Amino acid sequence: MTSILKTENVHLYYGDKEALHGFDMEFEENQITALIGPSGCGKSTYLRCLNRMNDLRNNTTVTGSFKLGDQDIYAPTTDMTELRKEIGMVFQQPNPFPFSVYDNVAYGLRIAGVKDKKVLDEIVETSLKQAAIWDEVKDDLNKNALSFSGGQQQRICIARVLAVKPKIILMDEPTSALDPISSAKIEDTLLELKKDFTIIIVTHNMQQASRIADKTAFMLNGDLIEYDKTSKMFLNP
Ligand code: ADP
Ligand code: ADP
């Protein structure tokens, strides 16, 4: 197994309130890692540290070491646009931009300067296929992404992240706003995606973690309590 992301001695303060209490965690390539634990234990906070999506409005201070390969994520020289491409994020509420499916998925590529229509077409199609939504949208690529169901919107959002070929995809409760069928579709999709990507997913759903995660991290009160192969975490008594 190859380590892709390593964090050490992570502390995070919202003002003077310490929300993460100094733990280490390392992630392996082409695996799904689930972060579980009770509401308020710091799962989202930790996830957002990984691509510097911390809430800066609240006087947030982060310390510790965050390394993507050799790259120091918090180095002053880090190019944030580049970082967010390497470490993409999918949120709980599907949040497609209010324009066409095509333009949603092409968005990051256009920002990266890709202009060739053929190249864009190809990557948009591949990404929508990888996100298992192509068949449902292929005849409606010009339709507003917001006109689709929640589950479809979420898969469009996943395609939007995939299009820029991130190394890591962070997911914060990506299925908890969805119906069980959409949720199951996304779980199946993630199991396919891990062949090409590394996924870190926050979930309050233990069954979900046991179904899809290679490793599971259990957090409590801003600390990492247990971190192991999922098969070992959910041993039947
Ligand atoms: P989880 O994702 O496990 O539910 P969070 O990471 O959202 O937990 O929250 C961890 C703790 O930090 C909670 O006590 C929460 O209220 C607090 N918190 C989260 N975001 C902020 C913020 N922007 N400002 C102040 N406190 C916050
Ligand atoms: P989630 O459960 O999806 O992480 P939350 O409801 O915890 O969402 O947080 C929503 C927003 O409110 C986030 O931007 C978070 O940082 C902020 N937030 C959460 N807890 C607090 C808090 N105690 N004080 C200030 N902001 C908070």
From TrEMBL:
GO molecular function, one term: ATP binding
Keyword ATP-binding: yes
Domain ABC transporter span(s) in chain numbering: 5-237
Nucleotide-binding found in the keyword field: yes
Record-linked InterPro entries: AAA+_ATPase, ABC_transporter-like_ATP-bd, ABC_transporter-like_CS, P-loop_NTPase, PstB-like
Keywords tagged on the record: ATP-binding, Nucleotide-binding, Phosphate transport, Transport
Pfam families assigned to the protein according to its UniProt record, in alphabetical order: ABC_tran
Top-rank taxon: Bacteria
Name of the protein this chain belongs to: Phosphate ABC transporter ATP-binding protein PstB
Gene this protein is translated from: pstB_2
